[in-house]
TrEMBL record, chain A:
Keyword Translocase: no
Transmembrane segments annotated in the record for this chain: 37-60, 66-87, 94-113, 125-146, 153-173, 185-214, 235-252, 258-274, 281-300, 370-391, 403-424, 436-457
Alphabetical list of InterPro entries matching this protein: FtsW/RodA
Protein name: Cell division protein FtsW (Lipid II flippase)
Location of the region described as Disordered in the Swiss-Prot/TrEMBL record: 1-23
Keyword rRNA-binding in annotation: no
GO biological process, one term: cell division
Native species: Agromyces terreus
Principal localisation: membrane
Recorded superkingdom: Bacteria
Taxonomic classification: Bacteria, Bacillati, Actinomycetota, Actinomycetes, Micrococcales
A GO molecular-function annotation: lipid-linked peptidoglycan transporter activity
UniProtKB/TrEMBL annotation, chain B:
Entries under PANTHER family matching the protein: NUCLEAR INHIBITOR OF PROTEIN PHOSPHATASE-1
Name assigned to this protein: FHA domain-containing protein
Record domain FHA: where: 104-153
InterPro entries according to UniProt: Cell_Proc_Reg/RNA_Proc, FHA_dom, SMAD_FHA_dom_sf, YscD_cytoplasmic_dom
Keywords carried by this UniProt record: Phosphoprotein
Xref: SMART domains: FHA
Ubl conjugation keyword on record: no
Segments passing through the bilayer: none
Coiled coil: none
DNA-binding recorded as keyword: no
Length: 471, 176
């Protein structure tokens, strides 16, 4: 399996000569890119509309400065679109507009909270978010330009595994790491920029898992003993699962970050399941993780507090507890309730009562001002984004591309689930960023790179010779 | 700015968001609900490049190029390995399809490598993959089955040179 996959790198360069008669590529690059153009136009109108509505609702007049900053982002997004017209003509036309709308809605809501806090200029989170969005989109353009074929990444399987581990360990280095709100997942460079390397690590991990599983899945899926109607793997093949499990438990203990641990472990489990199509891995992995989480909730104070907040947030003791109480969770729920079906309208709610409304609680803030109708539109956009990612994965012609596409799409889905589930009290609250929406540079950069990789994958997938037989 | 205007603007914004969502869903409807089954339509056949009978069985430059590409990538075992797939009956009889090293998916969905749009083919019908130097065919749980030399394929089986594979109303074989 492994030598076949490396050999493909040369064998599948898209044929440059015209395809033989009768074998045509279903290529409608012009049609795809034009569709993307019109959707992008609507996306930019939505983003500008959101900012204008925030200003009308909260300030009562229109301030052109921020609208102009937002327009600068639109220019960058169209730059990405034009780059794709040249280097990724067959790429999926929906990913870019969806990411643009999510990013723009996030900026509008962060801006709205800045107005409530009275922040302006470089101090305000929204201006920094716009700057980071610019950096993130440029990073996406660079990714599309540099990685012309996703199989290149296959060669760097183990290197990206190493990179992921180093990125995960960076915040623990004394002097470089920084502890914010109890979690040690940040590195700070000077006093200005702090960065969450774990966000980038998830891309490196997806590449590593995909490459590793393509090379080794035979031993993980073929042998084993049958028990309870499922084929369980041999004890010696459990190594990778145990290593990733230990890694995520280490994240819980040393970085005190439950969400990230769940994200990494869930990513590995799903990719393992997709690669081997064996349910026993999922059963084994989930029971391992649940056991670990239960032990952690009994022994680690912060995990225990999270579980208590989840189970009984409205009890007085939990609500008033100062570090790690349920005040934030309950305020978020009140905000969502205040929003109701159609919301209070952008700029007219009071999301600023909830602590950190612009990052962890952006979903509650948006839910208050856009209501259930708006929140469900946002979830629908996430569903479409993830479904496109899965689709790209399924349509892939090589195993590495398939796994990578599914993995990257799933990491976005799982992250949304962990954050939204935490805010709405479906699962215990854990601090993760909502992809594209929440304030935070590292998350934006990571998610835009994921979009760029999916775009590149979809271009390679469609750019294959095809034979059409109309019966 | 009156309350009413703001409310109207707010509703308009929500509507715009949902219009955007449904515009995307409408644009990808064929992906969500599957490819439409095409009945035999003369104009549909006319839209594709000249069909079946116009092709002589061999196209020397193409076959040579495909063979060279296959040989370059397959290495030592290239002389034994098939380099092309030839359609032997149906609409496109005589057409050749170069074999690389990539998996070849067969089905009605537009992301298959060989797209067969007739009433007997499933969306994801079958796939062929190179497995330690041999081409294998696997049926993807299709409704009407995949046949290798008249025997229905249940588990992945190696494809001998020249054996007839039948998918729907189309048959093809591998040639060197």
């Amino acid at each position: 399996m492994s030598d076949a996959a490396t050999g493909r790198v040369t064998a599948t360069q898209p044929p440059t000569a015209t395809p033989p008669d009768g074998i045509r590529r279903i290529r409608m690059p012009q049609r795809l890119r034009n569709l993307e153009f019109w959707l992008l136009l609507v996306a930019c109108v939505i983003n500008a509309g959101a900012i204008v509505l925030v200003q009308l609702g909260a300030l009562g007049h229109i301030d052109t400065q921020l609208v102009l900053l937002g327009a600068g982002l639109s220019v960058l997004v169209f730059a990405l679109h034009i780059v794709m017209r040249f280097v990724a003509r067959d790429a999926d036309p929906f990913l870019l507009p969806i990411a643009t709308v999510l990013n723009g809605l996030g900026i509008a809501e962060i801006y709205r909270i800045d107005i409530a806090f009275g922040d302006s200029g470089w101090e305000s989170a929204s201006v920094r978010q716009i700057a980071w969005s610019g950096i993130a989109i440029i990073a996406a353009i660079a990714t599309i330009l540099l990685i012309r074929n996703h199989r290149v990444l296959f060669r760097y399987t183990y290197l990206s595994g190493l990179v992921a581990i180093v990125l995960l360990l960076l915040p623990l280095v004394p002097g470089l790491g920084e502890e914010i709100n109890g979690a040690r997942v940040w590195i700070s460079i000077g006093s200005f920029a702090s960065f969450q390397p774990g966000e980038i690590a998830k891309i490196a991990l997806a590449v590593f898992f995909a490459g590793y599983l393509v090379r080794n899945r035979d031993s993980l899926s073929m042998v084993g003993t049958k028990f309870l109607g499922m084929r369980f793997p041999r004890a010696r093949d459990l190594g990778p699962l145990l290593i990733v499990w230990a890694l995520s438990m280490a994240v819980i203990v040393f970085q005190r970050d439950l969400g990230t641990a769940l994200l990494y472990f869930g990513l590995f489990l799903v990719m393992l399941y997709v690669a081997t199509s064996r349910l026993s891995w999922v059963v084994l992995g989930l029971s391992l993780f649940l056991a670990g989480a239960l032990i952690a909730s009994q022994t680690l104070d912060y995990v225990h507090a999270r579980f208590q907040n989840w189970l009984e947030p409205f009890s007085d003791g939990r609500y008033d507890a100062d570090p790690g109480g349920s005040y934030q969770l309950v305020q978020g729920l009140f905000g969502l309730a205040n929003g109701g079906l159609i919301g209070t309208g952008l700029g007219r709610g009071s999301p600023d009562i909830t602590p950190v409304p612009q990052s962890d609680y952006i979903i509650a803030s948006l839910g208050e001002e856009l209501g259930l109708a708006g929140l469900f539109a946002i979830f629908a956009l996430y569903v479409l984004l993830v479904a496109r990612g899965f689709r790209i994965g399924f349509a892939g012609q090589d195993d590495f591309g398939k796994l990578l596409g599914v993995g990257l799409a799933f990491v976005v889905a799982l992250q949304v689930f962990i954050v939204v589930g935490g805010v709405t009290r479906v699962i215990p609250l854990t601090g993760l960023t909502t992809p594209f929406l929440a304030a935070g540079g590292s998350s934006l950069v990571a998610n835009w790179i994921i979009v760029a990789l999916l775009l590149r994958l979809s271009d390679t997938v469609r750019n294959h010779p095809r034979l059409v037989i109309d019966g | 700015m009156s309350e009413l205007t703001l409310l109207v603007l707010q509703l308009g914004f929500l509507l715009l968001l949902w219009v955007f969502v449904f515009a995307i869903v409408y644009a990808l409807r064929s992906d969500l609900f599957g490819q439409r089954v095409r009945k035999l339509q003369p104009e549909a056949a006319g839209a594709t490049p000249p069909s079946g009978s116009a092709f002589p069985a061999s196209k020397p430059p193409v076959a040579a190029a495909a063979g060279a590409a296959g040989a370059a990538s397959a290495g030592a075992s290239a002389s034994e390995a098939p380099s092309k797939l030839v359609i032997t009956s149906g609409q496109k009889a005589g057409t050749e399809f170069p074999l690389g090293r990539d998996e070849i998916t067969i089905g009605r969905s537009s992301d298959s490598a060989i797209i067969i749009r007739d009433d007997y083919t499933s969306t994801h019908h079958a796939r062929m993959m190179l497995w330690s130097g041999r081409w294998m065919i696997q049926d993807l749980d299709s409704t009407n089955g995949t046949f290798l030399d008249g025997v229905r394929v249940t588990a992945p089986v190696p494809i001998p040179l020249g054996a007839t594979i039948k998918v729907g109303a189309t048959t093809f074989e591998l040639r060197r």
